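Q: Start with the shorter request: fold the first protein.
A: Done. Sequence, then structure:
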Amino acid sequence: MSVELPFAPVDAVIRREAGDLRVSADAAEELARRIQRRGAELAREAAERATESGRKTLMVEDFPFEDPEADADSLTLPVAPVDRIARLDIPDEYRVSMDARVALAAHLEAFAADAAEGAAVLAEHAGRRTVQAEDVETYFRLVE
Protein backbone atom coordinates (compact mmCIF):
# COMPACT_ATOMS: atom_id res chain seq x y z
CA MET A 1 0.00 0.00 0.00
CA SER A 2 1.49 3.31 -1.02
CA VAL A 3 1.10 6.17 1.42
CA GLU A 4 -0.94 9.04 0.01
CA LEU A 5 -0.07 11.58 2.70
CA PRO A 6 2.98 13.76 2.18
CA PHE A 7 5.67 13.28 4.82
CA ALA A 8 5.99 16.90 5.96
CA PRO A 9 2.51 17.46 7.45
CA VAL A 10 2.56 14.13 9.32
CA ASP A 11 6.04 14.97 10.60
CA ALA A 12 4.74 18.39 11.72
CA VAL A 13 1.88 16.81 13.69
CA ILE A 14 4.11 14.30 15.44
CA ARG A 15 6.78 16.93 16.23
CA ARG A 16 4.14 19.29 17.63
CA GLU A 17 3.02 16.59 20.06
CA ALA A 18 6.52 15.29 20.86
CA GLY A 19 7.67 18.54 22.45
CA ASP A 20 11.42 18.46 23.07
CA LEU A 21 11.85 14.93 21.74
CA ARG A 22 13.32 14.20 18.35
CA VAL A 23 11.25 12.25 15.83
CA SER A 24 12.62 9.57 13.53
CA ALA A 25 11.54 9.49 9.90
CA ASP A 26 10.33 5.93 10.48
CA ALA A 27 7.98 7.13 13.23
CA ALA A 28 6.39 9.71 10.92
CA GLU A 29 6.11 7.11 8.15
CA GLU A 30 4.45 4.61 10.49
CA LEU A 31 2.02 7.27 11.69
CA ALA A 32 1.20 8.19 8.06
CA ARG A 33 0.40 4.52 7.34
CA ARG A 34 -1.89 4.37 10.38
CA ILE A 35 -3.65 7.61 9.40
CA GLN A 36 -4.21 6.24 5.90
CA ARG A 37 -5.64 2.94 7.16
CA ARG A 38 -7.98 4.75 9.52
CA GLY A 39 -9.16 7.19 6.84
CA ALA A 40 -9.80 4.43 4.29
CA GLU A 41 -11.71 2.40 6.88
CA LEU A 42 -13.88 5.36 7.87
CA ALA A 43 -14.62 6.15 4.21
CA ARG A 44 -15.57 2.53 3.50
CA GLU A 45 -18.05 2.61 6.39
CA ALA A 46 -19.34 6.02 5.26
CA ALA A 47 -19.90 4.68 1.73
CA GLU A 48 -22.06 1.90 3.20
CA ARG A 49 -24.14 4.48 5.07
CA ALA A 50 -24.46 6.66 1.97
CA THR A 51 -25.61 3.65 -0.05
CA GLU A 52 -28.22 2.84 2.60
CA SER A 53 -29.46 6.42 2.20
CA GLY A 54 -29.58 6.06 -1.60
CA ARG A 55 -26.65 8.42 -2.25
CA LYS A 56 -23.33 8.17 -4.05
CA THR A 57 -21.91 11.20 -2.26
CA LEU A 58 -20.32 10.80 1.14
CA MET A 59 -21.53 13.52 3.48
CA VAL A 60 -20.32 14.53 6.95
CA GLU A 61 -23.27 12.71 8.50
CA ASP A 62 -22.05 9.43 6.97
CA PHE A 63 -18.98 9.51 9.21
CA PRO A 64 -19.14 8.35 12.85
CA PHE A 65 -17.78 11.54 14.38
CA GLU A 66 -19.03 14.99 15.14
CA ASP A 67 -18.43 17.61 12.47
CA PRO A 68 -15.51 19.49 13.99
CA GLU A 69 -15.52 23.23 13.67
CA ALA A 70 -12.52 23.13 11.35
CA ASP A 71 -11.80 24.71 8.04
CA ALA A 72 -9.20 23.51 5.58
CA ASP A 73 -6.92 26.47 6.30
CA SER A 74 -6.61 25.61 9.99
CA LEU A 75 -5.46 22.03 9.40
CA THR A 76 -1.93 20.67 9.21
CA LEU A 77 -2.99 17.66 7.16
CA PRO A 78 -3.82 18.72 3.60
CA VAL A 79 -7.32 17.97 2.37
CA ALA A 80 -6.41 16.72 -1.15
CA PRO A 81 -4.40 13.70 0.06
CA VAL A 82 -7.11 12.95 2.63
CA ASP A 83 -9.59 12.91 -0.27
CA ARG A 84 -7.37 10.37 -2.06
CA ILE A 85 -7.21 8.29 1.11
CA ALA A 86 -11.01 8.35 1.37
CA ARG A 87 -11.26 7.00 -2.16
CA LEU A 88 -8.77 4.14 -1.73
CA ASP A 89 -11.27 1.43 -0.84
CA ILE A 90 -14.56 2.73 -2.21
CA PRO A 91 -15.93 2.34 -5.74
CA ASP A 92 -15.08 5.07 -8.26
CA GLU A 93 -18.68 6.23 -8.63
CA TYR A 94 -18.70 7.66 -5.10
CA ARG A 95 -17.94 11.30 -4.44
CA VAL A 96 -16.80 12.88 -1.19
CA SER A 97 -18.32 16.26 -0.37
CA MET A 98 -15.93 19.07 0.53
CA ASP A 99 -17.39 19.32 4.04
CA ALA A 100 -16.82 15.59 4.51
CA ARG A 101 -13.22 15.88 3.29
CA VAL A 102 -12.47 18.69 5.73
CA ALA A 103 -14.21 16.88 8.60
CA LEU A 104 -12.29 13.68 7.80
CA ALA A 105 -9.00 15.59 7.65
CA ALA A 106 -9.75 17.21 11.03
CA HIS A 107 -10.67 13.85 12.53
CA LEU A 108 -7.52 12.20 11.16
CA GLU A 109 -5.38 15.06 12.44
CA ALA A 110 -6.83 14.62 15.94
CA PHE A 111 -6.30 10.85 15.61
CA ALA A 112 -2.66 11.49 14.63
CA ALA A 113 -2.13 13.98 17.46
CA ASP A 114 -3.41 11.49 20.04
CA ALA A 115 -1.14 8.77 18.64
CA ALA A 116 1.86 11.10 18.50
CA GLU A 117 1.32 12.21 22.08
CA GLY A 118 1.05 8.58 23.21
CA ALA A 119 4.15 7.60 21.25
CA ALA A 120 6.09 10.45 22.85
CA VAL A 121 5.10 9.26 26.32
CA LEU A 122 6.28 5.75 25.41
CA ALA A 123 9.62 7.07 24.12
CA GLU A 124 10.16 9.03 27.34
CA HIS A 125 9.17 6.01 29.41
CA ALA A 126 11.77 3.96 27.53
CA GLY A 127 14.37 6.60 28.40
CA ARG A 128 14.86 7.73 24.82
CA ARG A 129 15.03 11.25 23.40
CA THR A 130 13.71 10.14 20.00
CA VAL A 131 10.22 8.96 19.10
CA GLN A 132 10.65 5.88 16.95
CA ALA A 133 8.33 3.77 14.80
CA GLU A 134 8.20 1.16 17.58
CA ASP A 135 6.65 3.79 19.85
CA VAL A 136 3.89 4.45 17.33
CA GLU A 137 3.33 0.71 16.85
CA THR A 138 3.23 0.10 20.61
CA TYR A 139 0.77 2.95 21.10
CA PHE A 140 -1.64 1.38 18.62
CA ARG A 141 -1.22 -2.09 20.14
CA LEU A 142 -2.12 -0.63 23.52
CA VAL A 143 -5.22 1.27 22.36
CA GLU A 144 -6.61 -1.24 19.87
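Q: Next, the second protein, separately.
A: Sequence, then structure:
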Amino acid sequence: MAKTLYLVRHAKSDWETGQADFDRPLNKRGRRDAPDMGRRLKQRGALPALLVCSPARRAIETCELLDLGTETVFNETIYEASAGELLDLVQQLDDRVESAMLIGHNPAMTWLAGLLSGERIEGMPTCAVAAIEIETARWRAAGACPARLLWRDYPRKAE
Protein backbone atom coordinates (compact mmCIF):
# COMPACT_ATOMS: atom_id res chain seq x y z
CA MET A 1 0.00 0.00 0.00
CA ALA A 2 1.25 3.50 -0.79
CA LYS A 3 0.23 7.11 -0.22
CA THR A 4 0.52 9.82 -2.86
CA LEU A 5 1.52 13.34 -1.90
CA TYR A 6 1.27 16.25 -4.31
CA LEU A 7 3.31 19.31 -3.42
CA VAL A 8 2.26 22.52 -5.16
CA ARG A 9 4.01 25.85 -5.06
CA HIS A 10 1.51 28.70 -5.40
CA ALA A 11 1.19 30.41 -8.78
CA LYS A 12 3.02 33.64 -9.66
CA SER A 13 2.09 36.48 -7.31
CA ASP A 14 1.93 40.22 -7.76
CA TRP A 15 4.79 42.12 -6.11
CA GLU A 16 3.54 45.50 -7.32
CA THR A 17 0.48 45.82 -5.07
CA GLY A 18 2.33 47.20 -2.06
CA GLN A 19 0.42 44.75 0.13
CA ALA A 20 1.90 42.73 2.96
CA ASP A 21 3.43 39.42 1.86
CA PHE A 22 0.56 37.38 3.30
CA ASP A 23 -2.01 39.42 1.36
CA ARG A 24 -0.35 39.45 -2.07
CA PRO A 25 -2.68 38.26 -4.86
CA LEU A 26 -1.76 36.37 -8.00
CA ASN A 27 -0.60 38.38 -10.99
CA LYS A 28 -1.93 37.96 -14.53
CA ARG A 29 0.45 35.08 -15.29
CA GLY A 30 -0.50 33.31 -12.05
CA ARG A 31 -4.21 33.63 -12.86
CA ARG A 32 -3.49 32.08 -16.29
CA ASP A 33 -1.13 29.31 -15.10
CA ALA A 34 -3.21 27.90 -12.22
CA PRO A 35 -6.27 26.87 -14.28
CA ASP A 36 -3.93 25.37 -16.90
CA MET A 37 -2.17 23.31 -14.22
CA GLY A 38 -5.56 22.26 -12.86
CA ARG A 39 -6.49 20.90 -16.30
CA ARG A 40 -3.16 19.09 -16.53
CA LEU A 41 -3.64 17.55 -13.08
CA LYS A 42 -7.12 16.32 -14.07
CA GLN A 43 -5.72 14.83 -17.29
CA ARG A 44 -3.18 12.88 -15.22
CA GLY A 45 -5.90 11.72 -12.81
CA ALA A 46 -4.05 13.56 -10.04
CA LEU A 47 -7.08 14.32 -7.90
CA PRO A 48 -6.17 14.17 -4.20
CA ALA A 49 -8.68 13.12 -1.59
CA LEU A 50 -7.63 16.07 0.61
CA LEU A 51 -6.10 19.44 -0.13
CA VAL A 52 -4.25 21.33 2.60
CA CYS A 53 -3.58 24.95 1.69
CA SER A 54 -1.69 27.88 3.13
CA PRO A 55 -4.06 30.70 4.14
CA ALA A 56 -1.95 33.28 2.26
CA ARG A 57 -4.01 34.99 -0.44
CA ARG A 58 -1.85 33.80 -3.36
CA ALA A 59 -2.11 30.18 -2.17
CA ILE A 60 -5.89 30.40 -1.74
CA GLU A 61 -6.26 31.90 -5.22
CA THR A 62 -4.07 29.13 -6.65
CA CYS A 63 -6.22 26.52 -4.91
CA GLU A 64 -9.43 28.05 -6.25
CA LEU A 65 -8.10 28.32 -9.80
CA LEU A 66 -6.79 24.73 -9.85
CA ASP A 67 -10.48 23.83 -9.40
CA LEU A 68 -9.91 20.22 -8.37
CA GLY A 69 -13.22 19.81 -6.52
CA THR A 70 -11.40 18.41 -3.51
CA GLU A 71 -12.16 18.92 0.18
CA THR A 72 -9.89 21.77 1.25
CA VAL A 73 -8.61 22.73 4.67
CA PHE A 74 -6.43 25.73 5.45
CA ASN A 75 -3.46 25.36 7.74
CA GLU A 76 -1.48 28.33 9.02
CA THR A 77 1.59 26.15 9.57
CA ILE A 78 2.20 26.06 5.80
CA TYR A 79 2.83 29.80 5.57
CA GLU A 80 6.54 30.37 6.38
CA ALA A 81 7.00 26.67 7.20
CA SER A 82 10.28 24.82 7.08
CA ALA A 83 10.51 21.46 5.32
CA GLY A 84 10.48 19.83 8.77
CA GLU A 85 7.28 21.59 9.74
CA LEU A 86 5.65 20.53 6.47
CA LEU A 87 6.80 16.96 7.08
CA ASP A 88 5.21 17.09 10.55
CA LEU A 89 1.96 18.23 8.94
CA VAL A 90 2.10 15.35 6.42
CA GLN A 91 2.79 12.86 9.21
CA GLN A 92 -0.38 14.02 11.00
CA LEU A 93 -2.69 13.34 8.04
CA ASP A 94 -5.49 10.84 8.57
CA ASP A 95 -4.43 7.39 7.35
CA ARG A 96 -7.81 6.93 5.66
CA VAL A 97 -6.69 9.59 3.17
CA GLU A 98 -4.84 7.84 0.33
CA SER A 99 -3.69 10.99 -1.47
CA ALA A 100 -3.18 14.55 -0.31
CA MET A 101 -2.05 17.82 -1.82
CA LEU A 102 -0.25 20.66 -0.04
CA ILE A 103 -0.34 24.12 -1.60
CA GLY A 104 2.29 26.41 -0.17
CA HIS A 105 5.49 28.32 -0.61
CA ASN A 106 9.14 27.99 -1.47
CA PRO A 107 11.70 27.15 -0.32
CA ALA A 108 9.90 24.62 1.89
CA MET A 109 8.00 22.92 -0.95
CA THR A 110 11.22 22.29 -2.89
CA TRP A 111 13.06 21.12 0.20
CA LEU A 112 10.27 18.72 1.22
CA ALA A 113 10.06 17.26 -2.31
CA GLY A 114 13.80 16.58 -2.21
CA LEU A 115 13.76 15.30 1.35
CA LEU A 116 11.01 12.77 0.72
CA SER A 117 12.04 11.62 -2.76
CA GLY A 118 15.81 11.64 -2.33
CA GLU A 119 16.01 13.53 -5.63
CA ARG A 120 18.07 16.65 -6.14
CA ILE A 121 15.46 19.28 -6.91
CA GLU A 122 16.97 22.67 -7.67
CA GLY A 123 13.76 24.62 -7.24
CA MET A 124 10.10 24.41 -7.96
CA PRO A 125 8.93 27.22 -10.26
CA THR A 126 5.68 28.99 -9.46
CA CYS A 127 2.64 26.71 -9.85
CA ALA A 128 4.88 23.63 -10.04
CA VAL A 129 3.64 20.24 -8.84
CA ALA A 130 5.74 17.37 -7.53
CA ALA A 131 4.00 14.00 -7.16
CA ILE A 132 5.60 11.68 -4.62
CA GLU A 133 4.65 8.10 -3.85
CA ILE A 134 5.37 7.10 -0.26
CA GLU A 135 5.58 3.35 0.38
CA THR A 136 3.49 3.19 3.51
CA ALA A 137 -0.04 2.76 4.76
CA ARG A 138 0.56 5.34 7.50
CA TRP A 139 1.35 8.99 6.88
CA ARG A 140 3.36 9.16 10.10
CA ALA A 141 6.02 7.01 8.40
CA ALA A 142 6.61 9.67 5.72
CA GLY A 143 10.26 10.62 5.71
CA ALA A 144 11.32 7.34 7.30
CA CYS A 145 10.18 4.93 4.60
CA PRO A 146 11.00 4.66 0.90
CA ALA A 147 9.45 7.22 -1.41
CA ARG A 148 9.96 8.19 -5.02
CA LEU A 149 9.29 11.14 -7.23
CA LEU A 150 6.61 10.04 -9.70
CA TRP A 151 6.70 13.20 -11.80
CA ARG A 152 7.10 16.96 -11.78
CA ASP A 153 5.17 19.44 -13.84
CA TYR A 154 5.11 23.22 -14.11
CA PRO A 155 3.49 25.73 -16.45
CA ARG A 156 6.42 26.29 -18.80
CA LYS A 157 7.50 22.65 -19.00
CA ALA A 158 7.42 21.25 -22.53
CA GLU A 159 4.98 18.40 -22.73
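Q: Describe the second briefly.
A: The radius of gyration is 14 Å. The chain has a mean pLDDT of 96.
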